[in-house]
């Protein structure tokens, strides 16, 4: 049994893994290091400093864009989690309803559809209904984008859940709704939390769809950063990106821990 393990740790495999990780994360490491650069020139190292972090927190336009992104992310992630959970329950528990295949295909379409097409379609919709573009149009667009991701996460958890637990609760006098709320919902709650965090991360990171659906006074942080970069990279942008990386890392770690907790709960729940 030891030989296969040693084979997996061959010099070629270690080198390939190191090159792959360097290709993915070395630019991010360089960005984080240069966010502490005291020099005004991005490519010239001038010593360690927190200057550009203070510049960011004194930049009213950047702070306003960051607050807008956080509000849009929180609201759209909550709406996407509710709708995605309902969709996952419908696909898991109602196996043979008419139109299931069409509903499933339409639900998962944003997973593979280019964001340019999604953003343009939503823009044409908002123009057709004469909706003023702003906070709510961006929120609706992000809800449309992220709902399918939540549905996939929750549906995978529901599919592995033992339904005999719910059936036992109904045998003891619970109606289906109460059995779902009292038995199933606590078991899938970690996956719902993971879906919310994933939706929040996707919303916070989105640029393409937000650029189609935003309006005056509702600029998100990625759009603001993109507009700054087009005029030349400032060291302040490095500091902002470092803060975003840290926030997304915390959210991803929390989502991963929630998914592991959900799996452990499913394994420890013995059928009645």
UniProtKB/TrEMBL annotation:
Query: ABC transmembrane type-1 domain: from which residue to which, for each copy?
Result: 66-258
Task: Give TM segment ranges.
Answer: 12-36, 72-94, 106-129, 135-158, 179-199, 237-258
Keyword Transmembrane in the entry? The reply is yes
Q: A Gene Ontology biological process annotation?
A: transmembrane transport
Q: Which UniProt keywords apply?
A: Cell membrane, Membrane, Transmembrane, Transmembrane helix, Transport
Q: Which SUPFAM superfamilies match?
A: MetI-like
Q: Which residues form a coiled coil?
A: none
Please indicate if the UniProt record lists Metal-binding as a keyword.
Answer: no
> Pfam families attached here?
BPD_transp_1
Q: Tell me which InterPro entries the record gives.
A: Bact_Polyamine_Transport, MetI-like, MetI-like_sf
A single GO CC term for this protein reads: plasma membrane
Where located? Cell membrane
Main subcellular location: membrane
Q: Which Gene3D superfamilies does UniProt cross-reference here?
A: MetI-like
Q: How does it sit in the membrane?
A: Multi-pass membrane protein
Q: Which domain of life is it from?
A: Bacteria
- Would you identify the family this protein belongs to, as annotated? Belongs to the binding-protein-dependent transport system permease family. CysTW subfamily.
| Name by which UniProt lists this protein | Binding-protein-dependent transport systems inner membrane component
């Amino acid at each position: 049994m030891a030989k296969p393990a040693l084979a997996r740790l061959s010099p070629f495999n270690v080198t390939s893994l190191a090159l792959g990780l360097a290709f993915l994360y070395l630019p991010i490491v360089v960005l984080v290091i240069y966010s502490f650069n005291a020099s005004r020139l991005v490519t010239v190292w001038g010593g360690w400093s927190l200057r550009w972090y203070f510049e960011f927190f004194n930049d009213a336009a950047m702070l306003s864009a960051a607050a807008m992104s956080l509000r849009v992310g929180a609201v759209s992630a909550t709406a996407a989690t509710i709708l995605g959970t309902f969709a996952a329950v419908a696909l898991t528990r109602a196996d043979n309803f008419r139109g299931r295949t069409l509903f499933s295909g339409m639900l998962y379409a944003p997973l593979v559809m280019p964001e340019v097409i999604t953003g343009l379609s939503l823009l044409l919709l908002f123009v057709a209904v004469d909706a003023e573009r702003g906070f709510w149009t961006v929120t609706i667009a992000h809800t449309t984008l992220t709902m399918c991701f939540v549905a996939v996460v929750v549906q995978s958890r529901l599919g592995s859940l033992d339904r005999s637990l719910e059936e036992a609760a109904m045998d003891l006098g619970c109606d289906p709704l109460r059995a779902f709320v009292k038995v199933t919902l606590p078991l899938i709650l970690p996956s719902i939390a993971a879906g919310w965090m994933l939706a929040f991360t996707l919303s916070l990171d989105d640029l393409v769809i937000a650029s189609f659906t935003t309006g005056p006074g509702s600029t998100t942080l990625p759009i603001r950063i993109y507009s700054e970069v087009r005029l030349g990279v400032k060291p302040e942008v490095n500091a902002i990106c470092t803060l975003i990386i840290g926030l997304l890392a915390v959210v991803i770690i929390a989502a991963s821990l929630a998914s592991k907790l959900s799996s452990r709960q499913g394994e420890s729940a013995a059928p009645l």
